[in-house]
Amino acid sequence: MQLEKIASSFRIDGCPVSCQEFGSGHINYTVKVLTDSGNEYVLQRINKFVFKDPVRLMDNVGSVTDFLRTRVEDPRMALHFISTHDGKFYFLDEDEEYWRMYDFIGGFCLDAPESEEDFYQSAIAFGRFQHMLSDFPAHTLFETIPEFHNTVDRYRQLRESIAADACGRLAGVKEDIAFMLDREELACRLQKLRESGELPLRVTHNDTKLNNVLLEKDTRKALCVLDLDTVMPGLSLYDFGDSIRFGAATAAEDEPDISKMSMDLHLFEVYTRGYLEAATALTDREVELLPLGAFVITLELATRFMKDYLDGDVYFKVAYPEHNLVRARAQMKLAADMQSKFDEMNRIVAQVAAEVRK
Ligand code: ADP
Ligand code: GN1
Ligand code: MG
Predict the structure, then answer these.
(1) 3-state DSSP assignment of residue 257
(2) Disulfide: which of 57, 99, 322, 324 matches 309 by Cβ 3.0-4.6 Å?
């Protein structure tokens, strides 16, 4: 079905005159729509392979954005979804594909921080998001991807893919797999603390990459958090950790030359400061474990990229055949670098916490 026709199924202002693919997400298909009245919107096809129940997913997103709207001072600080002519927040096309649409909002996303202030602003955005949702009724949320950040289960899934070796790719990655298995106990420690109740379950974003934050176009201040598909009960440490993994790395997530990949301790400090300033309700135990959160989420993602490489690239969008392997290796290098910097990270967290948390 034509994109213009799909866009016209929503209650937008004007008639669509251009629809252009944009953004750098790995999951959904995202299009920017311009109408003849000069309005701009984002149109997205929800990835059905990843999200098995798009209707309930949109229920989640709808209730989270409704809730956020009551907490923010500027309406641009919460996504505004547009309903269809028959009053739903999704449109089902003739190919059984689900689409949704929201206001474009004047802002921009970055794939890497251009200054430490950009990164600090993203910490404020995600910390504030955590804070605003602290009294959201978590039990009403549907688990859009069950066991999403259950690292124990991620290792189980990796083992399944190793056993199946569906594409004959295993022989080339034996050393990489050994690296992951050697660190399994450490990677699974947070999941154990979650199960024992030592770490509180919170309403978390679960996909806190820098390019899921919108910065205001003129001031470059944090405006809004995007990509709410994985808002579910989870650990604050994963949200913190995923931001560090993506934004404090010295190279892109898919850098083929892993010698360029490490974690920038200064950026780690900048983000820690912003996050602790905004997410004021974290417990001392959570704060103490922030460095481990960064390591765990990085290694967990390495297992997910590796699994997808072994399965034949069925989950993440890829630009070339080895893309998932390149991503997995870049994440392993980053995790190893974090592991070697634990003492410094711990020192930074203690120092920032002493300054920020009174
Ligand atoms: P995915 O699940 O594919 O990551 P997202 O909702 O994150 O889907 O959208 C994909 C990308 O599109 C974002 O990472 C961002 O780069 C871009 N994007 C989405 N909405 C906007 C917006 N309102 N303004 C600017 N960029 C946006
Ligand atoms: C995906 O949707 P996007 O591109 O923001 C993925 C995250 C990964 C990330 C790695 C639903 O995020 O879990 O950390 O790629 N999202 C989902 O870049 O699997
Ligand atoms: Mg995204």
Answers:
(1) coil
(2) 324
CATH number of 116-356: 3.90.1200.10
Cβ atoms of residues 218 and 211 within 8 Å: no
| Token pair for 16 | 């669509």
pLDDT per position as a tens digit, 313-328 = 999 999 999 999 999 9
Residues ≥6 apart with Cβ < 8 Å to 95 = 1
| Ligand 2 center–CA 26 separation, angstroms | 6
Ligand 1 pocket test, pick from 22, 26, 30, 99 with the greatest ligand atom count within 8 Å of Cβ, gives 30
Ligand 3 centroid, distance to 101 Cα (angstroms): 15
Locate the ligand 1 atom nearest the alpha carbon of residue 228 and give its number: 6
- CATH 3.30.200.20 domain position(s) in the chain: 3-103
State in Å: Cα 165 to ligand 1 middle: 33
- Ranges in the chain annotated CATH 3.90.1200.10: 116-356
| Ligand 2 binding site (Cβ under 6 Å of any ligand atom) | 25-27, 50, 207, 209, 212, 227, 229-230, 253, 301
27-66 residue pLDDT tens:
999 999 999 999 999 999 999 999 999 999 999 999 999 9
Look at the domain 3-103 and name its fold.
Answer: Phosphorylase Kinase; domain 1 (3.30.200)
CA 268 → CA 52, 137, 215, 341, distances in Å?
Answer: 35, 31, 20, 11
The residue whose CB lies within 8 Å of the most ligand 2 atoms, and thus the one to mutate among 57, 126, 149, 209, is 209
117 within 8 A of 222, measured Cβ to Cβ: no
> What pTM was estimated for this model as a whole?
0.96
